[in-house]
Structure formats: structure tokens, C-alpha cells
Specification:
The complex is a heterodimer. By secondary structure, chain A is an alpha+beta fold. Helices cover about 25% and strands about 35% of the residues of chain A. Chain A has a domain of about 110 residues: Archease, Possible Chaperone, Chain: A, domain 1 (3-Layer(bab) Sandwich), CATH 3.55.10.10. Chain B contains 18 helices and 21 strands. In chain B, helix 5 packs across helix 13 and helix 9 packs antiparallel against helix 11. Helices cover about 35% and strands about 25% of the residues of chain B. At the A-B interface, strand 1, helix 2 and strand 6 of A face helix 9, helix 11, helix 15 and helix 17 of B.
Amino acid sequence: MTFALREHTADIAVAAAADSLGGVFGAVADGMAAAMIDDDVPATGAQLTVSERAESREAALYDYLTRLLYERDVQGVLPVDNAATVDEPTGGGDWRVTASARGVPLDAVHARDLKAVTYSEMQLTPPGGPTHAEAGTPPDAVREHPDDWAAYVVFDV
Amino acid sequence: MSTFDADGHRLTEVEPDVWALADTGDESVPARVLANRSLLAQISTDNTLTQLRNVAGMPGAVAPALCMPDGHQGYGFPVGGVAAFDAEDGCISPGGVGFDINCGVRMLTTTLTYDDVKGREAALVDALYDAVPCGLGGGGVHDGTHADLDAALERGIDWCVEEGYAVPADRRHCEDEGQRLDADLDAVSKKARDRGASQMGSLGSGNHFLEVQRVTDVYDDDTAAAFGLAEDQVVVLIHCGSRGLGHQICSDYLRRIEQEHPDFLASLPNKDLAAAPAGSELAASYYGAMCAAINFAWVNRQLITHAVRETFADVFDAPDWEALGMDLLYDVSHNIAKRETHAVVETEDGYSLAGDGERVERELFVHRKGATRAFPAGHPEVPAAYREVGQPVIIPGSMGAGSYVLRGGSQSLGRTFGSTAHGAGRLMSRTQAKDEYQGGDVQDALEADDDIHVKAASGATIAEEAPGVYKDIDDVVDVSAGLGVGDPVVRTYPVCNVKG
């Protein structure tokens, strides 16, 4: 899985790709963490786990990332080394996200606020799209293999 | 008439510095950009004009949809966007208000002059940095319980007065006297409360700052006197919002709109504009939650004000802050939607601010997203202290360019629903800024060349907020003044700046 920070006039965007839907969720979350810190991340912090349910893939991604910002503010930790699995709904139910991260205490880093996840220009594209060598559109710019999932999320700074 | 073409958009200058966006048939109301040609060229480099066009296509919009001269791309609404929707037949848009509900700025006066501060800038900026939590973590000025938080959400500055963080005069110098009576605690989620409880009195990051400034130019002696401002005077600017509490409220309601009003959402030009139909239960609930967040943001800025006052008293060996004359000049909001009554003309399609027909009073949800209310002299909602001269309007610039205090202009109600710009407006992305600037270099240059002392939690933030990433604030203010929506009173220049 991989991510890159992308330009946005006042805010910041994360483009990410991975070989699974859960992988791309985790990659976006790692990009979100990277947008909050420029220094090396210390190898400290305890594991935190979260789970979310939502009615669509995009809503599941939105709720998952928003939940990480909530945990950041309430627990006082920066969630890094994110990993997620996403289960498709069966029989008309919700998409389910189960995720873990390492919560680095905020007092151990110089971190900047990132306010919120937005739906602005959000893209979550399944395998089959062009790779970065074939297209320059934001979500595909980091897709290395045609079988990767790709995502593009703008965050409010 | 002069025209301007940009990436599929044609604009026509219908009067000096007023540009009409060509109608494509998707708009409900006309869209206007207030800018000179130079600012328009900058505004048109990103998606600002598309976003303005989308806003003009929202249901119940009252003509026109506007972009202020400091406009730039946001999400949903452009930053610098002003749009009004009928409170009966229109909508209210959490996407339009944005995440940082009641992000705003306030100015404190002092009796100090620049000579009093010169030579003590380093001590002052260090002391302010230590006193005011900024960046991520670090808590707030008030270590609050959930009961404190609820009181703040409900009562705003009133709670601060009771707790000793404010004096009654602060309340009188704040929009709505620092309390939105429509706040509804039941509409605020537990998650939002959890996030707000540990952030009562904290600056945050991004473009938020605390800045000590000196008045360098006075353009209107009488109004400056009414505002308590004079040349060479030291003042303090505080810019921040409702922190995680407001961010969570916006996120909560974006999702609720998606779940509870999918058809209405689908009818909007863009999902980012998520709105609840006027009159719906969700619209009422959002309005109550937003008002609670507005109260929280006022409390947040007031708690920082308290810390700043105490710090000044310490640094300048004063018996107390009152001895330094640290009064609140005014507190303005940038990201809000508000029920306001405006005189509009009924048209075939709804209502319009422009036109020669008979005017009727309509209650509107006026959305100001990165825009400032700028009510003129005589308006009953301008605090009594300023009613004869007009509402103070504070326009912060970059940390190298200074800021302005305006007064609400005589044309503001008829042109912009009583609004003007909120700052210089970004010109460059944050990633590009970090490529072009090094935080340490910017910090050193500001101190060596301009005698501006900057302290920040993150060097990257200094780079992202370098003076060169913003538009020319003089241009922004010139347009505002030329159109009569905000008249310059004084200009200020930075002395010390604290950033998150």
C-alpha cells in the first residue's frame, strides 16, 4: 500500500492505493497522519482498535477516518501504522470496517491539526483503473498495479 | 463591457469590480465575483468559480450568490462565499458553513505603544506561546468538565463572565453579545462533546494564530476614535474557531443528511453542498447544534483572551490587565449561517437582493463561508457602542503583511447581504508552500528584515503560512472599499505572531 500528499489550495489531499479495499483505507489513514506530522514518528504508543459501519463504501471510509480524528482528540494520540479490513454487506446490511493503529502520544511529537475529512472530490475506485504510468488523475497517480484499489480524499486544514 | 475567460467560465464586468458569471442554465440565481482583474485572475486558477456556480444552483437561493475578493477554492462553497437561502422554502447547508463553525477573529486594544513593546518582543512571544495551547494536544486554557462544556455551549460568553474569564464589556463587544440563544444541546453528539471538553481555550493549527500588532495607518479618525484605536497603538488579534467540537458537529450532520435526506442531497449540484431542507426536523436540529458550536467558539476565543491579558500583565509588570486597557474591540465570525431579515425583491423564481420592485422583508439563512458580516451604521444588530459608525470588521492578513480594521459600509446590505471579505485569501497550496519555503528561513527573515517575531509549534506551519502564499490584502480591501461594503479605518502591522 502507498500514499502521497496532493496539492489543494487551502487544504490537503491524500491519494492512496493498495491491493485490497481495507488496504487502501489504511493507506489513506497513514496519509492523513503524515499530513499532521513532518518529523520522524517515534516508535512509541499503544495499539488502538476501532470499528465502524456505514451504508456505502465511501461513507465507510468517511466514518473510519473521522473516527480516527475523534480518537486523536479524545485519547491524545496520533494514529499511525494503520491497518483495516472492510467487509462487504450481506443481505442489504452495512459495510463494516475493523481497524487498528498505533497511537503515538501527541506530547511525543510536534503535530499539526487537521480538522476534518471531506467528501469533496472523494474517489474510491476499484481495481481495473489505469496505473500511474497511464493516467495522471488524482486517485490513479499512485496506483502501481491495475489490480489495486485507489482512493483520493481531501482533508480540511 | 469587459470580459474575462477562465477554464470554461466567462465573466462580464457589469460594474467596476463586480463580475457576473455567465449563466449555463444550471443556476437558480446569478453568481457574482467581487474583485479587480488581478484578484479575479488569481481566484480563477482553481475550482473557485465552479464552486460558486454550484452554490448558485442550490434550491431556495436568493440572488445573487457571491464570492468575496479574497475568495479561493474550498470544499462545497468557495472560501469567501456568501449565499442566502429562504428560511421557509430554501435550505441550510452544513457543507456551506464548513467544519470550523464560527471560526473568527477578535481584536483587543491596549494602552501600550510600539515603543513599550520594542525590545521585549522575544519575551512576549515566548510568554504568549507558553500561555496559549496550540497545535495538537496540550489541552486548553480551561481544564473543563462536561458540565462546564455544556454551560459554555448553552450560554457562550455569559458563562465566561460568571467564571471570571470575561467582563461584561466583552459581551457587549461581541456579535449577538456572545450568545446564540438558539443553541440546542440535545442536537450536539456525545462525540462532539468529547472532542470539545479538552480543547476549551486552544488555538489549533493551520491559519489560526495569535498576533500582537501595531497600528501603522489611520484612515478615518472619527471611526478609529470610536473603536478606541490610534496610530502606534499596540493591539492583539486572535484567530481560531470551534476546534474538534465544531468539526465533529459538521461531520455528524453531513452524514445525517446523507442518510435522512438522500433525495434532497441528490438534487444538489454537488454532494459537498450537503444541506437540509428549510422547515425539516434535521434543519432545526443542525441550526441548534451549529449555534451551540458558535457559542463554543466565542468561549474559546474568550478563554484565549483571558490568557493573553494575564500574560501581558506579567510581561509588562502591570498590576492587572485592566491597567493596560486590554478591552475587546470586537469579535467577528467567518463560518456561520444565520437567520437574518433582509429587504428583497420578489421575482418569478424567488427573491433577489437586486431589483427595482417593491421590497419585502424575508427571513433568510445567510451563509458566510470565509466571509465577515459588515453591517452599516444604524443597523440595530450593530452593538450600541458602534451603531453610529458601523460594525467593526477585522480583516487579518498574512504574518508579514499586516491587517485592516474596516467598518461596515453603507452599500453592504444591498450588495452582499451585509458582508465583506475575511482575510487576504490563499494563493498557493500548502504542499507548494512547503516546497518553496522553509519554516526556519521564513521565521529568520521576518525577524531580521521586518522585526516580526514568530513562534510556532511546527516549522511546517510557518512555511505553509508564509506571507508569499497569500493574496495582496491591500487589493482585497480596496475592492471592499470601492464597492462600499467595508470602509478602511486603520491598518496594522505584525509585531509578534504565535502559530499552532
